[in-house]
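Supplementary Methods S3. Input chains for the assembly prediction are listed below.
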Amino acid sequence: METGNFHHALKIREDLCIGCSHCMVVCPTEAIRVRNGKSVLFGDRCVDCGECFRVCPVSAIIIDHDDFNHIFDYKYRVALVPAVFTGQFPEDISLRQIHSVMLELGFTHIYEVENGVEILSRAINDYTESHSENKPLISSFCPAIIRLIQVKFPALVDNIIRLKPPLDISAHFLKKELLTLGIPAEEIGIFYVTPCAAKIAAIKDPVGESTSPIAGVINMDFLFNKVYRKVKQQNGQSCAIPVSGKLSGKATCWSLTNGEAGQVGGRCLAIDEIHNVIEFLEKIENEEITDIDFLELRACDESCAGGVLTTSNRFLSVERLRNHADSYHENDEPAHPDAFRKITSESEYLNERISIDPIKPRSILKLDENMAEAMKKMEKVNRIMQLLPMVDCGICGAPTCQSLAQDIAQGEGSIQQCIFIQKIMEQKGEMSLDDSVEVMQSIWGFGKTNKYRDIKGI
Amino acid sequence: MMHFEFHVEGGNFTKAGAASSQLKKILKQLNVDPKIIKRIVVALYEAEVNVVAHAFQGDIFIDIDTEKIGIKLVDQGPGIADIELAMQKGYSTASSSVREMGFGAGMGLPNIKNNSDELKITSEVNVGTTVEFVTYLNQ
Ligand SMILES: Nc1ncnc2c1ncn2[C@@H]1O[C@H](COP(=O)(O)OP(=O)(O)O)[C@@H](O)[C@H]1O
Ligand SMILES: [Mg+2]
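Predicted structure tokens for the full assembly:
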């Protein structure tokens, strides 16, 4: 089975997986199959959207992050937190409380990801004005969307805006800022608190950039539990004055739906949730929809507030962040003497580093590199499709009849996996009962096919 | 060599684009260059919309080999009296209700010409129109 050369933060734990196939059914790129009673991932197809993680009933799908103690490998331990992290907490817990608890937990600095927006929002507007030939331009914000376009919409890779997202801009700023303070590079550990799997994959295996200044990633649900517990135990007695300034309203809402589209000039559209995005990209690809200048596309419903590693209800998180944004006044907050400078004081340095390399297509749709071979395989797929029942029952261990047919044409499956075909073959004497049970076991494992005791008593 | 056929209903704009979407899927699976896919799909989409907008019904015949893709649309409808005039940019007889739906800018036939390597249109008034175009893959 092809695993692909791409880093995936999503892993299936074989010891926990019960082979229920829920993940296989919801995967928007048909990247999962069931074999020997366990889900297996086709690495080249997975875009790290995390839909499988959401539906797994036994938490067998995990998002591989760094050990928290890894932060203590560094003398300077910076938490790079997105605004949605604050949105996880109830209104009565202040940003100040949250941050001071994080300092107690071991971080030496806290910096909000969306500070990078102050640099990016200007760069995007310049970019959209000078790249009208690739319209509609598509935001590079959501890494799952970039991967989705690479694998499913290869014709649109050039529409992706080649600018770093706020996360990378802020990380570059932090590194620069700490180096300027005379701190040696090896003592700086920047740790990103992630709301999703896709961001992890993007950091460990950046698309369109060679290295990342980020030392490690911590899952948001993990840190939330740690912080919330401590806040509860301390019963509100806080706390240090926050070192980082307050985010602007625009920056606070950047990761929410319409956060970008609302800030870019021209005709802009914001679309969230991966199936909605797929439906829309189909139309863009056919040029059925034209005249759009900018597209903000996010894999999760309610964008990052709906990230798979968030704890709070996404609508409540959005409400809290919008309230914050509304109450922002530039001169509210006294500047802390140890605070980092404003990110805009390094505009020039950051703008020099804001571009990413061209993004390469890596289509999962092609049946073969060679067109004549692909045509042969397509004919085979079509012949197989004539035989299959077209009910997409998933008993064969593939999500749809079409995907089984493709697996067979690619030499990664057999027609006898289909339960309907099995029955007919048994009836015609072309397959023995023992063989058909064996096929079932090779898909669903021994346990599920061996539960029979005495059904008369039921 | 592979052959595909699709039927097009006149007047049903919700289904306009179904054949071009299907063809796009096929061409992606055959690993055709995305830029060429785009040209073919745009041309077919325009031709499909013309059958929906102007004719009663039609059929699409597609032939694919490793060198070229040939597409033929045969419709039953009013036909085109002056093909040269119809080919002009911005020329349209579309009704105002069709325009309100976002079709009928008079750019369909010119777009088909731009996005194909050979284009042939034949038509008989009150009988129907045949639009044929070819796109070469290795250029
Ligand atoms: N299949 C067809 N049957 C009848 N008339 C057609 C057909 N295709 C095009 N025409 C005529 O040619 C004109 C120009 O076509 P086109 O360039 O596609 O513009 P539009 O469809 O926007 O009007 C149409 O307005 C119509 O009069
Ligand atoms: Mg037209």
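The pocket of magnesium ion (ligand 2) is lined by residues B 46, 49-50, 53, 108 (CB under 6 Å). The CA atoms of residues 173 and 349 of chain A lie 9 Å apart.
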